[in-house]
């Protein structure tokens, strides 16, 4: 979720949605350090035995959406499978997997964790998972936002789980609440990870009257090495439709260049869209090291019936030859910021100057070629 106005809008929507579950809405490895003793760890359920074999679809083509009721998607391809997690708006953490991108549409959601801790027991938003070096070797670190209890939106903070092995679906155990060591005085949302020059950073968004993005240095995947610094503030008119919002920071790296693609404006509007920051080589903790593009790089496509495209992620095709974007969007201008937002994906290209070219959002139901290297059916 985003901004105080967004939280208020969501709270109002919950009163209307009686009984319906509401909805919110790349890499040098860090040095391994000794893990602190586990404390008050949440129980980590084993993957549902009935959901371990995912459904597959024909690899030649697919259509969007690849998941209905799938806001804030995070998708990665690992060891022959696509893995997808999205906001649940409750105390469950789920993931689905499939051999093909199209197969995600019918793959079952598997419960991988249940939130029970007092300071993060409900309203799970914006999950992302990264394979990073931990004290026991590579592990998946699953970042998410949750509050003290369901729908206590002002208490939303960033937390992280750690996998027992190298399976993205776990099992997982609670690792840490990633509170700011000096400024834990407001909600923080939308965690993501930047790996740059051998250092690790947490990206997110918070409230300070508007909703800027922040960057915080980490000493390991779960521990802050300093307080947050403002990364980007919404200033352009296209960043302030329905509310001044910069959120959902996502890292994109290619040919030695680093970009951060982010979501701007309020998620409840059809004008939710993507902006671009380009790193100029300076200190990543200094906002002057990030140059903001003056125009959005991905936005509504009225002709195709796609509204509010945002909160994206990136993945590569199975053979590594193609770059893809995953994002959520609505099929109507009044779709809002709830669980009706669906997960969509499409290939993108690169401009001659080395910046990404995301094109325009493709409409639902349009047949698209699947990612290169997918297995034959």
Automatic annotation (TrEMBL):
Annotated signal peptide: 1-25
Keyword Hydrolase applies: yes
InterPro entries listed in its UniProt record: Glyco_hydro_43 (IPR006710), Glyco_hydro_beta-prop_sf (IPR023296)
Start-end of Low complexity biased regions: 43-60
Keywords: Glycosidase, Hydrolase, Signal
Gene3D superfamilies, per database record: Glycosyl hydrolase domain, family 43 (2.115.10.20)
Residues under site feature: Important for catalytic activity, responsible for pKa modulation of the active site Glu and correct orientation of both the proton donor and substrate: 190
Sample GO molecular function, one term: hydrolase activity, hydrolyzing O-glycosyl compounds
TM regions (residue ranges): none
Gene Ontology biological process terms in this record: carbohydrate metabolic process
Pfam families named among the record's database cross-references: Glyco_hydro_43
Region: Disordered, residue numbers: 43-64
Family stated for the protein in its record: Belongs to the glycosyl hydrolase 43 family.
Protein name: GH43 family beta-xylosidase
Native source species: Catenuloplanes niger
């Amino acid at each position: 979720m985003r901004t105080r106005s967004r939280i208020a809008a969501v709270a109002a929507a919950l009163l209307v949605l009686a009984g319906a579950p509401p909805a919110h809405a790349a890499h040098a490895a860090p040095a391994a350090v000794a893990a602190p003793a586990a404390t008050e760890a949440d129980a980590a359920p084993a993957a549902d035995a009935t959901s371990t074999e995912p459904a597959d679809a024909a690899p030649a083509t697919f259509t969007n959406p690849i998941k209905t009721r799938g806001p804030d998607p995070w998708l990665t391809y690992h060891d022959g499978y696509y893995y997808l997690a999205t906001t649940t708006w409750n105390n469950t953490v789920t993931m689905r997997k499939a051999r093909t991108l199209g197969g995600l549409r019918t793959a079952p959601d598997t419960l991988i964790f249940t939130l029970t801790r007092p300071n993060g027991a409900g309203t799970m938003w914006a999950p992302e998972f990264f394979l990073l070096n931990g004290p026991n070797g590579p592990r998946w670190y699953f970042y998410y936002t949750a509050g003290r209890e369901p729908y206590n939106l002002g208490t939303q903070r960033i937390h992280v789980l750690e996998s027992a092995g190298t399976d993205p679906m776990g099992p997982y155990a609670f690792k840490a609440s990633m509170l700011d060591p000096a400024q834990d005085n407001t909600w923080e949302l939308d965690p993501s990870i930047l790996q740059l020059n051998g250092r690790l950073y947490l990206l997110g968004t918070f409230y300070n009257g508007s909703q800027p993005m922040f960057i915080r240095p980490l000493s390991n995947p779960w521990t802050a090495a300093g307080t947050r610094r403002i990364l980007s503030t919404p200033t352009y008119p296209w960043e302030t439709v329905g509310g001044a919002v910069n959120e959902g920071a996502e890292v994109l790296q290619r040919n030695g260049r680093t970009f951060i693609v982010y979501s701007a404006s309020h998620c409840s509007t059809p004008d939710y869209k993507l902006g671009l920051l380009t790193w100029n080589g300076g200190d990543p903790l200094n906002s002057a090291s990030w140059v903001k593009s003056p125009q959005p790089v991905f936005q509504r496509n009225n002709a195709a019936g796609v509204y509010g495209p945002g909160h994206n992620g990136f993945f590569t095709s199975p053979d590594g030859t193609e770059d893809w974007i995953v994002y959520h969007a609505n099929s109507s201008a009044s779709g809002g910021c709830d669980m009706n937002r669906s997960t969509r994906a499409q290939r993108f290209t690169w401009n001659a100057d080395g910046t990404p070219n995301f094109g325009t959002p493709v409409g639902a139901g349009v047949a698209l070629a699947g990612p290169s290297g997918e297995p034959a059916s």
